Amino acid sequence: MPPTAKPIKERLEAKCMPEPNTGCWIWLGSANSEGRAQMGSRTAARVSYAAYKGPIPEGLSVLHRCDEPICVNPDHLFLGTHTDNMRDMSRKGRGRWNVPSRPCAYQDKRTRRWRAYYYANGRQTHVGNFPSRDEALAAGAAALAAR
Asked: What are 48-95's pLDDT values in tens digits?
């Protein structure tokens, strides 16, 4: 007699670990290129939502209240449209245009000098070039504070 597949909830629970501080169920299985929990061809969040809460209507996404892409706790998941997801992301200060205000630096491979930038209000501002990373970060922080 061929072995039977384990029930989906049992398979989900075998590959996650409860995180006591947040209540997240951290996925220990594979992840896709975006860092999202993956179970077969679907995200583990979609599998979890369907297993614990029911079918997902076509056109809806599974969103995270906790904003942890590897969380599969069905209590942290809810349904929404793509627009809902974008609004949720914006409201929580996430995404490309919601980078927190911060200085940064990277080394130019050609000149070996450090380029200082700061990010604020969705924009990147170049501050200058410096001989060390520490100087570049300090200059970026000072420019950010002075704006």
From this structure: 999 999 999 999 999 999 888 889 999 999 999 999 988 888 777 676
Q: E strands of 40-122, at which residues?
A: 42-43, 61-64, 77-80, 102-107, 114-120
Query: Tokens 């997902």 identify what position?
Result: 56
Q: Which residue has the tokens 């220990």?
A: 28
Are 65 and 76 spatial neighbours (Cβ–Cβ below 8 Å)?
yes
Whether the pTM exceeds 0.85: the reply is no
Rg of the chain over CA atoms, in angstroms?
21
- Residue 89 CB-half CA count within 13 A: 15
Nearest CA among 81, 83, 85 for reference residue 94: 85
Which tokens in the block code for residue 74? 């069905």
The token pair at 41 is 């061809």
